[in-house]
Amino acid sequence: MRVDVVGGGLAGTEAAYQLLKRGVDVVMYEMRGTGSTPCHKTDNLAELVCSNSLKSEAEDTASGLLKAELKLLDCMLLRCAEASRVPAGGALAVDREEFSRLAERELSAFDNFRLERKEITSLDFDYPVVIASGPLTSDALADAIAQKLGAEYLGFYDAVAPIVDAESIDYDHAFFASRYDKGDPTDYLNCPLTKEEYDAFVTELVNAKVATLHEFEKREIFEACMPVEVMAKRGADTLRYGPMRPVGIRDKDGKRPYAVVQLRKENTAGSTYNLVGFQTNLTFGEQKRVFGMIPALRNAEFLRYGVMHRNTFLNAPALLTQGFLLKEDAKVAFAGQMTGVEGYVESIASGLIAALNIYAAETGEDEIIFPDTTICGQLQRHIGRECDDYQPMNANFGLLPPIGEKIRDKKMRKVAYYKRGEQDMKRFLNDRKMLKGGTI
User: What would the mean pLDDT of 178-205 be, rounded to a whole number?
Assistant: First the structure.
């Protein structure tokens, strides 16, 4: 059996692994190497283009539950993330280059894997295919998909945060501490601002020049990736309740700052930091000028400026089954953010689910739909839930059915969701003989 995979991002890479380990011949097509996108910086497989964080692993978070479910399914990219992790408190953050290197090594170890660096411009495939070309799908492939599906693409704008050189930070105006003392106190470098400094910063931020987006007419912005300058225009204190919130942070004197910008390590060596939650569409010159008003960053060297780009995704409920297969052709699966899942780990999950279901379709097995008490199961139901305004979805406990018993404590209620979902996933996989990633 052979399955082609279009796209070497998170979803495509995980899909390829799940097929390879089941003995399927996989040919992966990746455009980067012959061309690129507005946001990718390398030709590496599984490149992380925005944050280097895969979010929390805690039992009281939906992202933690999703990771627990994927571990039960032998998720390759989570293993790579754990092996390349950098300190980030309760979050799973990685060294980007090491993460990609480990992912490529995993796939290359299979004799039945072949990587071809070429742009796919049509959907005329001789074999079953998983299309995981991402929200930055090339124009030619996007046109081919639209022509085949006869469906309208939806779109939203996404933004990426800047990265600065650690040696250029003014440490006299910064301090190490994690929020509520979770994790190692050196996981985050905090850049405090006084009220006067914050007010001046916000004033300049809302009036700063933004980069022009010539190629698109619609200017829809997805809430989870809201540019910092757009947030600031919603009100003077918006940032203090968002990415610059000082809650749970104390400086070296035990005092809470008026506002704070958190920096998170980009690599194991701690030689670079990203500005947490500071996605932006400001021009490069304005980023240096305005972000330089943060005392600790007054002389910061920006190794990567923030950029903004349009992500596109399918009207999945009209086109796809809950197994991420094309309703009109079970030999075609879609995966990743273009299906309407939002987030790194969510994209990984979609690639895994798409691979399992295209394998099931080819081997005559029933479509695999995970329990509705799991995040994986609810992501499947999200793409199959018809509505008038289909939008991308992150993992969240609000997707899950209520816990039967009343638990007043909010954190304990979330932990109950976590434990129920993990147990139900184990039970489901045991029944299907799929625990720890076994064959269907």
Answer: 92
